[in-house]
Amino acid sequence: MKLHELKNVAGAVHRKKRVGCGEGGGHGKTSGAGGKGQKGRSGGSIRPGFEGGQMPLYRKLPHRGFNNYEFRTGYAVVNVGDLARLDAAVTEVNVEALVKAGLIRAGVTMLKILGDGELSRAIKVTAAKFSESAKAKIEKAGGQAIVG
């Protein structure tokens, strides 16, 4: 299959809604925007949470708590099965080798190896973390799982 041979699934493409082309088309007169007022005008939209100038509910209520999102430690994740598909010449796997192979993005510092898939050859793997199953599969194949 090539890009120029791709076809949409039946029913995926709808005809364009033609608004403002007369009453017979079903979208005439107000063109689906209802009556007059702010929401009937072009570009007339009200941002979420706006209550017409009244103090909005989300500003009335107290905001408490802490969110760890910006302080989290993000790991690039690679499965043991992905390591098995690497070139046979590769015997040592680390972040640089995986970036070169295209399995993770450049600039990643933390790597975690997960245990999905099988490994049949000995590979020396260096990563920040390993799952228990990944470590077991790597060592069973005769390789090394080095935390570093």
Q: How would you describe this structure to a colleague?
A:
- With 148 residues, the chain is α/β, with parallel strands linked by helices.
- The protein has helices at 57-60, 80-84, 95-101, 132-140, and strands spanning 76-79, 92-93, 111-114, 124-127, 129-130, 144-147.
- The strands form two sheets. A three-stranded parallel sheet has the order 1-3-5.
- The chain is elongated.
Main features:
148 residues; alpha/beta; three-stranded parallel sheet; 14% strand; elongated
**Element order, helices and strands?**
HEHEHEEEHE
Number of helices: 4
- The pLDDT mean sits at 94
Which term fits the overall shape? elongated
Task: Work out the radius of gyration.
Answer: 28 Å
- Poorly predicted spans: none
Question: How would a crystallographer describe the biggest sheet?
Answer: 3 strands, parallel
Please provide the count of β strands: 6
The secondary-structure class comes to alpha/beta
The fraction of residues assigned to DSSP E strands is 5-15%
- State the helical fraction: 10-25%
